[in-house]
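Problem 3 from the worked examples.
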Amino acid sequence: MKKLIEISAMPPNYLTKKECKEQLTVFHKQLFKLQNRFYADGRFGMLIILQGMDTSGKDGTIRHVMSCINPMGLQVKSFKKPTEEEQQHDFLWRVYPHIPAKSMIQVFNRSYFEDILVPSVNNTINEERINHRYKLINQIEEHLLKNDIHVIKFFLHISKEEQAERIRERLTEPHKRWKYDVEDKNAAKKWNDYEKIYDQIISDCTHVPWNIIPADKRWYRNYKVAKTLVEYLEKLNLKYPQPK
């Protein structure tokens, strides 16, 4: 498997911004219909995981890709730094309540992978416990699939240069300034450390394969995530139930 440094964060040359935006509109209509059928079918749940470096566009992906989905069938959970209460429990305690029920699509903005990523970079827990978390996450994803909860994992892949530009945007553009946190720059300084751990996560947590999305251009990121979701949902052979 290629390392992230070997994978371009830019769109392929054969696609234009205009084409991707036009196709995204088509995907929105398809996603609306597919999610309606998914909800009515009732056989499955779906967990969508969004991971990526700071500023990679997790919020933007949810806004631009999921906005067409009926809110009755969609839930979003953003996992931030664990609270004091959450730290008193095992690392999955805060995740369990948000595993989707049948008919529901749940989006994780960050996820249990943060509990490998951050402790590994900051060296706060030992290697044995980190390895246990790798093993446990693979087992959990296998368990979810066997219980008809489909898991789709996206890594939004941006370049170091693009991250620096987006941090500057947060400092200078009023509608983005509220997002700025001093930790953005601190995390940027640890880019190589985060990239190394993400390489390992993508390599070792593979019971559910990763979709690595080139995300330097927001329009391509949105297009590619929407396309992946449409294609996945179409393969489920969703059906409306017969009236009683």
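Problem 4, a separate protein:
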Amino acid sequence: MTGGPTPEWMREQERSHLGALRLMVWISLRLGRPFGRVVLRFVALYFVLFSPRARRNGRAYLERALGRRPRWIDGYRHVFSFASTVHDRIYLLNDRFDLFDIEFVGAESVQRALDSAPGGALLVGAHLGSFEVLRAMAHQHAHTPVAMMMYEDNARKINAILHAINPHAQQDVVALGRPDAMLKARDRLDAGHLVGLLADRSLAHDATAECMFLGAPARFPLGPWRMAAMLRRPVFLMAGLYLGGNRYQLHFELLADFSTVERIHREAAMAQAMQAYADRLGDFCRRAPYNWFNFFDFWQRT
């Protein structure tokens, strides 16, 4: 369990520009999703042609997920799936759920956990598919608020993007890295909220642990699991898989329940939960291989 050098995903130059995003929002909302998706195909093609490092890293991932040597079209489908989920945020953030066919798998298990004991639960996701489709669940179950935990710099970017897409869209964000982050998360959980965070990327010097992922060791951050153990909460994996067209499949699975884990058993329970998380991510990546959106050297081959 170590902290590492600055992760590659932090060193990559951001390619999003708010001006271009606002133009895409205008096109999409005025001319409709079908026309917006036509424009999106050219955006994806540009990215495939002019982002060699991301293309190379995406190919290394696809070889593991597909179990074969990926073709050029696989790389394009990978990028287009990513672009599609980003594009669909425009509609999801404007509450246009009528445009999508969203299937819920396992949502009742989350509701049972909320009904059976006081307090909320943690939803642990990844850069897999769309976390934004979680708004569909919040839309259906308005009595269960959802808060997101994210690093402060990312939170500022997300708020700028939200404002560009919909000035009235609001998201309850708890900034990670602040001394009071744990207390704020605890307060929301005590109030019965769901608290979501992504557990597949770390910041520089964050403690990490090695797990087997898609047949090779990879490092995952320890922070989410330490927080779950300290707050003694159930942890659900949330994966919003994009299935093409307007179809999404929103999965919820109980990964661990730290509410009854004694202090002396926390380390072992955390290690078990982390490997279970990596195993299920791998299963989802094989099931929907174009949904993994970490376009950097995840296995640190170099």
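Solution to problem 4. The CA atoms of residues 110 and 267 lie 24 Å apart. The first strand starts at residue 2 and ends at 3.
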